[in-house]
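Technical annex, item 7. During the second reporting period the consortium partners agreed on a shared format for inverse folding records so that results from different sites could be compared directly. Each record opens with the tokenized structure and is followed by the designed sequence. A conforming record, contributed by the partner at site C, is shown below for reference.
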């Protein structure tokens, strides 16, 4: 992965905050479960993954990703690093 992970996490948190337009009732960080909390719907998650691919110059393998336990920024980044 070509991007600094902490900087990438910050960019992605900012993306989520822009997407939800201040509608979060709590602080969002890289470990926030974006799917189970309802912060992002499936289309927003695809947009976030696309943003991750663009910012980190990586390919996200949807075939091997298991969202069963929820989706977090940290988990998305770790999946790309595997």
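Designed sequence (site C submission):
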């Amino acid at each position: 992965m070509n991007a600094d992970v902490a900087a990438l996490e910050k960019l992605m948190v900012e993306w989520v905050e822009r997407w939800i337009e201040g509608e979060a009732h709590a602080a969002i960080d890289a470990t926030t479960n974006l799917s189970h909390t309802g912060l992002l719907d499936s289309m927003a998650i695809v947009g976030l993954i696309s943003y991750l691919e663009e910012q980190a110059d990586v390919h996200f393998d949807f075939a091997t990703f298991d969202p069963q336990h929820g989706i977090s920024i940290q988990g998305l980044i770790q999946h790309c690093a595997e």
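The radius of gyration is 12 Å. The mean pLDDT is 90. All partners now use this format for quarterly exchanges.
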